[in-house]
Write a structure and sequence with these properties.
Pfam family, one: Peptidase_M1
Strand order of the largest sheet: 5-4-8-2-1-12-15-14
Number of strands: 22
Largest sheet: 8 strands, mixed
Shape: globular
Family: Belongs to the peptidase M1 family.
Bound molecules: tryptophan, zinc ion
Radius of gyration: 22 Å
InterPro entries: Aminopeptidase_N-like_N (IPR045357), Aminopeptidase_N-like_N_sf (IPR042097), Peptidase_M1 (IPR001930), Peptidase_M1_aminopeptidases (IPR050344), Peptidase_M1_dom (IPR014782), Peptidase_M4/M1_CTD_sf (IPR027268)
Oligomer: single chain
Strand content: 25-35%
Keywords: Hydrolase, Metal-binding, Metalloprotease, Protease, Signal, Zinc
Number of helices: 11
Helix content: 25-40%
EC number: 3.4.11.2
């Protein structure tokens, strides 16, 4: 499993290097209590971006979305998508105009609270000027009618993401951005919202999205509408839609629906068996991290050569079939399910803190392996501590830069950072911290500085030097010892 993901990380890194991206060197902090660098000066939030230094045009400022209602009709034979998106939001400030992110497609109609609004396109931004400014503190509803052939994002940041037309349908997937290729969205994890999906496809194809399945009904022209609902706040990059020929399996676990799907083109076997372990893995992780955060379980295995990774799409991760070519693989399932707590329920507030997601998900793989009677987490740590290459020690996982967002430093050194913390504070404090962190930040956003503060509070020790070395240092830290 790790081999495949590392393969991807390498590929992404190479692609970014070719695209001429460079790591943002971030200022190191002097402060004793919070070693996290602040946002790079010079990137200020505005209508066209939330102010994420790594992705200046991601998301939009001025409002907060509560719910997306996405009605989409897609015909794989023509690759034509027709969408009707309702975005319920609250204005943070007076809004004479506001932006949504939308890449490609043609906007036909925009209303704000039912009144037609002026709209223009500026690159991947949809700029909406309501008939009258929306006043600070008020809730408003934007409705956007649009259509066209969706195109994946090939942006300067992280390669391909978004809606992909596949052999028998489509897959909408990608990190850090993908949603804006198929609906107008505040496309940054800092603005989480509930989602209702109504996806209409030719009869006979399956549609899988996030959350709780709400059934199907016949639609005009021999189509079927599938409804899905994710009630818990969700970051936009964690939304997914998968359309095509799939073997589905449904059930119930701890009172929650289970819905999984495996591409029908794959032989029945390792992929089905691995995804079927989802609830068992989730139950184990629940014993370590605290209550499973969402109302549904599941997983989707896609057989699409352009998707060579897995993604922790909320309540229902999507896996490349590659993970299961060598037989059952519950390591990748443990990784993506760990993200349900760390990444999905507790989301980054800005992309530079990605190690909070990937370090903890990598560590969950180590814990799961140990729980399965394989290598201990201590052995996994020692192996990587001894053999990681220069790049891992040179790139600080707490400030990796865009080019190294999904590098081995973030994943492997991120996991080693978690283990170094465990060794330093002892198991009792460490496992209390994991549960406290998941509970305190549940359904929210968090930063590294907050993680450090929570760790210091729960463990009753000053830990800034540990995090300074493991997250921000540019050489291999000394091996951890119990304090
Ligand atoms: N976050 C994914 C995981 O850890 C992997 C990943 C890295 C990814 N970069 C991506 C997924 C780009 C989709 C797109 O499981
Ligand atoms: Zn991950």
């Amino acid at each position: 499993m790790s081999r495949n993901r590392r393969g991807l990380a390498l590929l992404v890194t190479v692609a970014l290097a070719l695209a001429g991206c460079t790591a943002d060197p971030e200022p190191r902090r002097e402060s004793r209590s919070t070693p996290t660098p602040e946002a790079t000066p010079g990137v200020t939030p505005g209508p066209a971006g939330v102010g994420d230094p790594y992705f200046p045009t991601a998301g939009n400022s001025g409002y907060d979305v509560e719910r997306y209602t996405l009605k989409v009709r897609y015909d794989p034979t023509s690759d034509e998508l027709r969408g009707d998106a309702t975005v319920r939001a609250t204005a943070d400030t007076d809004l004479p105009l506001f932006h949504l992110d939308l890449a490609g497609l043609t906007v036909r109609r925009v209303t704000v609270d039912g009144t037609p609004a002026r709209h223009t396109r500026e690159g991947t931004e949809l700029v909406v000027t309501p008939a009258a400014p929306v006043r600070a503190g008020t809730a408003f509803t934007v409705q956007v009618g649009y259509d066209g052939r969706p195109e994946p994002l090939r942006n300067e940041t992280i390669g391909e993401g978004g809606w992909l037309h596949t052999a028998d349908g489509a897959v909408a997937l990608g990190q850090p951005e993908s949603a804006s290729t198929w609906f107008p969205v505040n496309d940054h994890p800092s603005d989480k919202a509930a989602y209702d999906f109504e996806i209409t496809v030719p009869k006979g194809l399956v549609v899988v999205a996030n959350g709780v399945p709400k059934g199907q009904r016949p639609a005009a022209g021999g189509f079927t509408t599938w409804r899905w609902s994710e009630a818990a706040p969700m970051a936009s990059y964690l939304s997914t839609v998968v359309i095509g020929k799939y073997r589905t399996s449904t059930g119930e676990h701890r009172g929650r629906p289970v819905f999984s799907a495996v591409a029908a083109s794959l032989p029945r076997g390792a992929a089905d068996e691995s995804v079927a372990r989802t609830v068992a893995v989730a139950d184990y992780l629940e014993s370590v991290f605290g209550p499973y955060p969402f109302a549904a379980y599941g997983g989707v295995v896609v057989d699409e050569p352009r998707i060579r990774y897995a993604l922790e799409t909320q309540s229902r991760p999507v896996y490349s079939a590659n993970f299961f070519r060598g037989g059952e693989n519950t390591g990748v399932v443990a990784h993506e399910l760990a993200h349900q707590w760390f990444g999905d329920s507790v989301s980054v507030a800005r992309w530079s803190d990605i190690w909070l997601n990937e370090g903890l998900a990598t560590y969950a793989e180590w814990l799961w392996a140990e729980h399965q009677g394989r290598d201990t987490a201590q052995a996994a740590f020692e192996q990587r501590y001894a053999s990681s290459d220069d790049q891992v020690w040179r790139v600080p996982p707490g400030a990796p830069g865009v080019a190294n967002l999904f590098s081995d430093s973030v994943y492997e050194r991120g996991g080693m950072t978690v283990h170094a913390l465990r060794v330093t504070v002892g198991d009792d404090a460490f496992f209390r911290l994991l549960k406290t962190w998941a509970a305190d930040k549940r359904n929210g956003n968090a930063t590294t500085a907050e993680f450090v503060a929570t760790a210091e509070r729960v463990c009753g020790q000053q830990l800034d030097d540990l995090f300074a070395a493991w997250l921000y240092g540019t050489e291999r830290p000394a091996p951890p010892t119990r304090r």
